[in-house]
User: Which sequence fits this backbone?
């Protein structure tokens, strides 16, 4: 996996790589067959910049208001040495009073380099596992192997040690009203938290400890009811973990995709960018709009060549090997079916995958 | 600086004064006297408001107004004429421990007249460092950084006063909590000093502390008995104090041995790593 690193650097064209976060990894597992996304993410290409350069910049990203609200709530919970968080953990989990240590892993001595931060994360978590020292670890920088490539994860969470076990605390700004939160939001949070749990387990394993010391129960800290007061809810992410592990194992290995690409391919901004991006095959589905910065470009491409995926993943799956809308229509009205298949066959029937006639 | 006393001025006199003040602001800015310019601008705004009142006929506010509580005084006085660093110094002295700008702002607003504009705090530490490096010890005190105990690097978002002992200006993993409790004790003590009832702003601030210290809250939500708060905070502080002090003292000893004056106040960058990353010492000015 290390021998592909120079290729990936070249793909990025000299710009520094972007960190993965749980959002991008959760999205990656949502569309595991997309080679374009796989390659660009593995190389840490700034997809947003590429899309904008190509004229397909997303007109709106994540809502600025949502981001601000999220940051403000997180700052509130963590203010004054995590005062509110400690109160919550003491009330709900019976955290002992002496357990108040807080280590900030977001910046190491003014240095935000990923290697430095990851090294410090390893050191402090290793110490915590060995001696039980330390309680809260803010913003640990984790590493997870994605499609054969190690990717750094920028988790917006706190790892929390209670009686020798590590838990993930995720601070989210959606409200829990009367013990209930919006299921969609909770599902997204659980998916992201599962990524962190998995990465943390790998790290603990690398440090020579039992990965099961990272709990599958995560704590979701959200505003309670209509107030700004935080509340903590335990969340079991075992189902999400299972899905994630399966998807990650299934991901096409990036080196295999890279081997099939021309040797001088690069995603550097320039005249050939659109051509380079098209060289890598995409697998567009409308769901991409919610998760991928390249979605508008891929949608345009998919519509232009009439790919069935543009109509939705279920349509593509139903149509099996028929990969363009024209073919499907031709088969449906019989003009294509009559030429290549038996005339007695009903024209609306779809041939089994693999035997689809080509126009 | 307050408004000229006496009867309400005529619009003509006010216009003349506004003209004068505008010129004075311009002169002060040209001379680089930012503080003077700010004061003059405050006066200018007051004069303009008086002109509004005199010409447009809003309720007469300026005449015969006693120097009342802070909220009634004109904006210039409410903001306080003290430079930001003085105000931060006052708030930090009251707290007695390093604090984040947000807490400094709330403490100042709750216990001292006026407020600290938040935007000015962000650049304060950098300005202080620059001032110290150009002319070391030219000022009686500096707003400085807190050093992290393990790497002796500046901790994020904390301010301290340079005259404090070094043990107070380094922070280990327990220090955030210990300082929080110490601050709670000090603020509660200050609130009851003089036997006056606790002002609503101060009450709110103390509640923020009390609600996060076990056993510090009374029966009713939102009201704090400072004596109970002090007792509860001290009780928890007893648990952390020794471990925290030991870590801090050890770090302070290391800082004295390894760092020069400026670095002891503002932290040291990660030199060895940086040099390794760059291959050669290109950051010569940062090196000793």
Assistant:
């Amino acid at each position: 996996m290390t021998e592909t690193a120079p290729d990936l650097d070249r793909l990025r064209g000299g710009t520094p790589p972007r960190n993965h976060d749980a959002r991008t990894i959760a999205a990656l597992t949502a569309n595991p067959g997309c080679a374009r996304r796989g390659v660009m993410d593995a190389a840490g290409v700034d997809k947003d910049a590429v899309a904008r350069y190509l004229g397909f910049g997303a007109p709106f990203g994540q809502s600025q208001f949502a981001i601000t609200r999220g940051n403000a709530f997180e700052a509130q919970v963590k203010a004054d040495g995590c005062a509110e968080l400690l109160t919550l953990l003491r009330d709900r989990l019976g955290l002992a009073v002496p357990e108040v240590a807080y280590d900030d892993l977001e910046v190491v001595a003014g240095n935000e380099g990923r290697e430095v931060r990851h090294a410090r994360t390893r050191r402090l978590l290793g110490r915590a596992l060995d001696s039980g020292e330390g309680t809260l670890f803010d913003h640990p920088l984790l590493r997870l192997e994605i499609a054969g490539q190690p990717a750094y994860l920028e988790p917006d969470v706190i790892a929390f040690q209670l009686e020798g076990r590590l838990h993930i605390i995720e601070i989210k700004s959606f409200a829990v009203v009367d013990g209930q939160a919006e299921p969609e939001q909770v599902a997204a949070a659980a998916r992201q938290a599962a990524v962190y749990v998995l990465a943390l387990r790998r790290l603990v394993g690398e440090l020579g400890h039992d990965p099961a010391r990272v709990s599958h129960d995560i704590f979701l800290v959200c505003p309670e009811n209509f107030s700004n007061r935080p509340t903590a809810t335990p969340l079991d992410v075992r189902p999400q973990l299972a899905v994630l592990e399966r998807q990650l194992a299934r991901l096409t290995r990036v080196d295999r995709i890279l081997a099939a690409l021309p040797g001088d391919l690069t995603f550097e901004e320039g005249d050939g960018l659109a051509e380079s991006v098209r060289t890598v095959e995409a697998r567009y589905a409308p769901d991409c709009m919610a998760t991928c910065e390249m979605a508008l470009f891929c949608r345009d491409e998919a519509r232009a060549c009439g790919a069935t995926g543009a109509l939705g993943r279920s349509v593509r799956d139903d149509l099996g090997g028929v990969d363009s809308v024209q073919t499907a229509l031709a088969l449906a009205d019989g003009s294509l079916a009559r030429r290549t298949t038996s005339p007695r066959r009903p024209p609306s029937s779809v041939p089994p995958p693999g035997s689809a006639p080509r126009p | 600086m307050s408004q000229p006393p006496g009867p309400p001025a005529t619009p003509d006199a006010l216009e003349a004064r506004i003209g004068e003040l505008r010129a004075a602001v311009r002169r002060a800015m040209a001379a680089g006297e930012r503080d003077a310019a700010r004061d003059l601008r405050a006066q200018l705004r007051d004069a303009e408001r008086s002109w509004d009142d005199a010409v447009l006929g809003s309720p007469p506010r300026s005449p015969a107004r006693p120097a009342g509580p802070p909220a009634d005084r004109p904006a210039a006085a409410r903001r306080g004429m003290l430079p930001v660093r003085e105000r931060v110094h006052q708030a930090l002295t009251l707290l007695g421990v390093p604090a984040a700008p947000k807490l400094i702002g709330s403490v100042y607003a709750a216990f001292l007249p006026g407020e600290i504009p938040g935007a000015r705090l962000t650049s304060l530490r950098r300005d202080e460092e620059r001032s110290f490096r150009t002319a070391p010890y030219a000022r009686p005190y500096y707003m400085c950084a807190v050093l992290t105990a393990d790497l002796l690097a500046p901790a994020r978002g904390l301010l301290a006063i340079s005259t404090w002992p070094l043990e107070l200006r380094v922070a280990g993993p327990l220090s955030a909590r210990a300082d929080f409790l110490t601050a709670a004790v000090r603020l509660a003590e200050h609130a009851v000093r003089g036997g006056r009832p606790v002002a609503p702003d101060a009450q709110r601030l103390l509640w923020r502390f009390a609600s996060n210290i076990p056993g510090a809250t009374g029966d009713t939500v939102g009201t704090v008995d400072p004596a109970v708060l002090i007792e509860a905070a001290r009780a928890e502080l007893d648990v952390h104090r020794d471990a925290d002090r030991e870590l801090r003292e050890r770090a302070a000893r290391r800082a004295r041995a390894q760092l020069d004056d400026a670095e002891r106040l503002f932290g040291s960058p990660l030199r060895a790593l940086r040099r390794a990353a760059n291959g050669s010492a290109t950051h010569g000015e940062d090196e000793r």
